[in-house]
Amino acid sequence: xxxxxxxxxxxxxxxxxxxxxxxxxxxxxxxxxxxxxxxxxxxxxxxxxxxxxxxxxxxxxxxxxxxxxxxxxxxxxxxxxxxxxxxxxxxxxxxxxxxxxxxxxxxxxxxxxxxxxxxxxxxxxxxxxxxxx
Length: 133
What we know:
- The structure is a single chain.
- By secondary structure, the protein is α+β, with helices and mostly antiparallel strands.
- It is about 25% helix and about 40% strand.
- It has three helices and six strands.
- It has helices spanning about 25-40, 45-50, 125-130, and strands at about 5-10, 55-65, 75-85, 90-95, 100-115, 120.
- Strands 1, 2, 3, 4, 5 and 6 form a six-stranded antiparallel beta sheet that branches.
- The protein is elongated.
């Protein structure tokens, strides 16, 4: 088992639910992205500031497995770890409902880094996340 390096708590808001009363599948991607951005902040970096420097971390691929549906008012935690795979930084994110610690969803997100519009070998990932890789 890989060790989680970051976790972030959330609460489902009413407007994130669909007609069936569960969180719409597309909302999970927003949750996962927010967790990654908040994790980046803990390293002293900001997504917007990096963009202003011509550096863009971009999602190349997302896989999400849905296990148990969340409902309005549910509190949950996203826990993540990551690995380098060639030029990619791969985030593994798991979403747990707080009331029973059940795994509701899991995601694998492949990220790439572009500098001044050109794909890099991901050196920025090594610099920013050195203590975690």
